[in-house]
Amino acid sequence: MAPTGSTTTLYRPVSQAEFDLIAASGCRRFPPRLPEQPIFYPVCNEEYATQIASRWNTAEGKVGYVTRFAVRRDFLANYDVHIAGSRVHAEYWTRPRIWRGSTTRSWARSR
Q: 110 by DSSP, 3-state: which?
């Protein structure tokens, strides 16, 4: 997680279908979560996001991507970082609906 001024860079591994929905939004929002996915968890570093994308999103010959986006630090101050394994496995656990609006400032496809 790299702070840049008033924002922090976070990462999100996504499937091809999710990536297509992100692109269709003009790279302005994540697609809605499925009912069985109540938590939206952006991760704190590209290494962890790449691990997820390459291990989970590429199952059965599918494609995985890592999105990179900037989030206001004052917004993130309301949430704790959770470690889901080793120190590199740092992520935020949030409700999906809070990501609608102006929290996301920029996007980039990195994988």
A: coil
